[in-house]
Specification:
The chain has 19 helices and 18 strands. The chain has helices spanning 3-21, 25-38, 43-56, 60-67, 76-90, 94-107, 112-122, 140-148, 158-168, 175-203, 227-232, 262-268, 292-303, 318-324, 370-373, 417-423, 438-441, 452-463, 481-492; strands at 211-214, 245-249, 252-256, 278-281, 313-316, 339-341, 352-357, 360-366, 390-397, 404-410, 428-434, 467-473, 503-506, 512-514, 519-521, 528-529, 535-538, 546-549. The relative contact order is 0.06. Helix 3 packs antiparallel against helix 4, helix 5 (76-90) packs antiparallel against helix 6 and helix 16 packs parallel to helix 18. Strands 6-5-4-3-2-1-14-15-16 form a nine-stranded mixed beta sheet. It has a seven-stranded mixed beta sheet with strand order 7-8-9-10-11-12-13, with helices on one face. A two-stranded antiparallel ribbon has the order 17-18. By secondary structure, the chain is of the alpha/beta class. The protein folds into three domains: 3-129 and 136-148, Serine Threonine Protein Phosphatase 5, Tetratricopeptide repeat, CATH 1.25.40; 158-203; 211-553, 4-Layer Sandwich (Metallo-beta-lactamase, Chain A).
């Protein structure tokens, strides 16, 4: 979201809340929910609005916690001081409450809630009972630091940092002095964490030299990822699903559609940002590239201290390019011309080609008929409407061996024979499955907007891959991943005339394909398995992570 758009949403909210505040708190809360939806991709603005929601429901400690994560909001200190005034009052700390009231009113003299609190403080009523053992933040002044740099979930240098902060931030410090000391402490902590992250990336065990890491599936917050990584790009609430996969080939790394929680799953596989050389976005849905800014920000932080500059190139669907082109701006000269648009033109071939690197050729094409995104003969309008989704194929050639391996990926589109025509033959096919229904898996009708069962079946039949990995299940029908894979495998291999069988696996974080041997890593022993020998096991939890096991791992 642009700063202009975020500022406009904030101003609209402030005007609307001021109007509704005199009428009904319920109207204010409804307004907050509406603006949270509009500001979904501006993290700090969303935190501020959540803080407002807590504030107007009288949960001032929770409101303060949200406000502290929204430092870019204009008059940030006013909102923190306002919440702190209520917190102090509820704890019976009248002098502190009065101090926060005066600080807040110096910024906004006519704030209705503060004036009411000030009048209440002047009434001759018994003071509220102090609650010294309350675990909620005492105030913006004294507890901001504890919340904003909570290291309790980090196993890495936790005690040393807590001791350092405790020594620096005494209770007798003024707010301004506390902020200054916190900034110093934070800078030191960040520097140490970045250095540790770089060291971890150097010390890690060797990865598959040529491989595919599936990072799409239902996911949960990991405790195993490098703690420095978890801190540097920030912790988010765990979504229901995530998306993306990673290709390693000839020393280069390619990320495709880094969606929600991509980085969590990426680091779980002992991969680091320096392993990313290219990011490809094929869809115009923001959820498909939800983590691209986190990749960009983390790489910038590392480049500030790393002796070797690491450059990432971004190749984006047209809509993603329009949204992110100005955000992914270069910080260093070497990063100029690293953001590219995967454009399609009326006078271009159906399939465009880009040589990403030695041995890596990217083909991309629209999965939407040309007439739908080139509706006008007016040249000024050509390319102005973005295809819903792009299909891609990587031709991966080995420098040592005289052969080419093809990897295809299609998602976010209904089935069309044109997709198979443009995709061509594939050795490995990754599909975004989507949803299904009775008519779909009975092969009576194709689903709209996604491949589903019938579309995946038809695409696989036409492209004849050695291995199909089905990912991006919507979950609307429950956890049918194994049943879908079994049915596809059975129906695709009914014909005895086929020279070789097509193997089908449901994709989940932890599924790794070695492209040199075309084998799957066992989740337990890490041994290489022929895809036909892989046994897929799921946990008792619905949508729990799948395990890919060797037969001898099962009794």
């Amino acid at each position: 979201m642009t700063q202009v758009k975020g500022s406009e949403i904030l101003q609209n909210y402030l005007q609307e809340s001021e109007k509704f505040e005199a009428q009904s708190i319920e109207l204010v809360l409804e307004s907050i929910e509406k603006f949270i939806q509009e500001a979904y991709d501006d993290k700090e603005l969303v935190q501020f609005l959540k803080g407002e929601g807590e504030y107007y429901q009288g949960r001032y400690d929770q409101a303060l916690q949200h406000y502290l994560l929204a430092r870019s909001i204009p008059q940030f200190q006013f909102f923190c001081n306002r919440a702190s005034a209520h917190i102090a009052f509820n704890k019976g700390q009248m002098e502190k409450a009065d101090r926060f009231v005066e600080k807040a009113l110096s910024s906004v003299p006519n704030d209705r809630e503060l004036l009411a609190l000030k009048q209440k403080m002047q009434e001759p009523t018994p003071n509220p009972t102090p609650t010294p053992n309350d675990e909620t933040p005492a105030s913006f002044e004294s507890e901001e630091e504890e919340y904003s740099l909570d290291l309790s979930k980090m196993n890495f240098k936790e005690q040393e940092q807590d001791q350092y902060i405790a020594e620096k931030l005494g209770s007798d410090l003024t707010l301004e002095h506390a902020i200054e000391e916190r900034t110093k402490a934070f800078g030191q902590l960040r520097s140490e964490l970045i250095t540790e992250y770089l060291n971890q990336s150097e010390k890690r065990e060797d990865q598959i030299e040529k491989g595919v890491y599936i990072l799409n599936g239902t996911c949960s917050a990991s405790k195993e990822m490098p703690p420095a990584a978890r801190f540097l790009y920030g912790k988010r609430q765990t979504p229901l699903s995530c998306s993306g996969f990673y290709i390693r080939w000839e020393g280069k790394g390619i990320v495709v559609n880094p969606g929600e929680s991509f980085l969590e799953n990426f680091h779980e596989q002992n991969l680091f940002v320096k392993d990313i050389d290219y990011v490809i976005i094929t869809r115009d849905n923001p959820r498909a590239y939800a983590d691209i800014k986190r990749i960009y920000n983390l790489n910038y932080q590392l480049n500030q201290v790393s002796p070797e500059l690491h450059v990432i190139n971004y190749y984006l669907n047209q809509k993603a390019y329009e949204e992110l082109g100005h955000t992914l701006k270069p910080h260093f000269k070497q990063e100029r011309d690293t953001v590219h648009c995967l454009e399609l033109f009326l006078d271009s071939p159906d399939v465009e080609n880009i040589q990403l690197d030695n041995g890596i050729l990217l083909h991309y094409f629209s999965t939407t008929p040309r007439d739908s995104f080139f509706p006008s003969s007016d040249k000024s309008q050509l390319g102005s409407q973005t295809p819903y989704s792009l299909g891609i194929r990587f031709d991966l050639s080995s420098i040592e061996e005289n052969k080419v391996l093809s990897l295809g990926y299609v998602t976010g589109t209904s089935w069309s024979p044109l997709i198979a025509h443009n995709l061509g033959r594939c050795d490995l096919l990754i599909t975004g499955f989507g949803t299904t229904n009775l008519n779909d898996y009975s092969k009576l009708n194709y689903t709209d907007g996604n491949l589903g069962y019938y579309g995946t079946f038809s695409l696989t039949e036409a492209t004849e891959p050695r291995l199909v990995i089905c990912t991006e299940f919507s979950g609307r029908e429950g956890d049918v991943r194994l049943e879908i894979a079994k049915k596809l495998r059975s129906e695709l291999n009914l014909s005895e005339d086929k020279a070789s069988k097509t193997q089908v696996l449901p994709g989940d974080p932890g599924l790794t394909v070695d492209l040199q041997t075309f084998t799957i890593q066992c989740s337990v022993t890490r041994k290489s398995l022929d895809p036909s020998n892989v046994r897929v096991v799921k946990t008792h939890e619905t949508f729990g992570h799948l395990q890919y096991l060797a037969p001898d791992c099962i009794l």
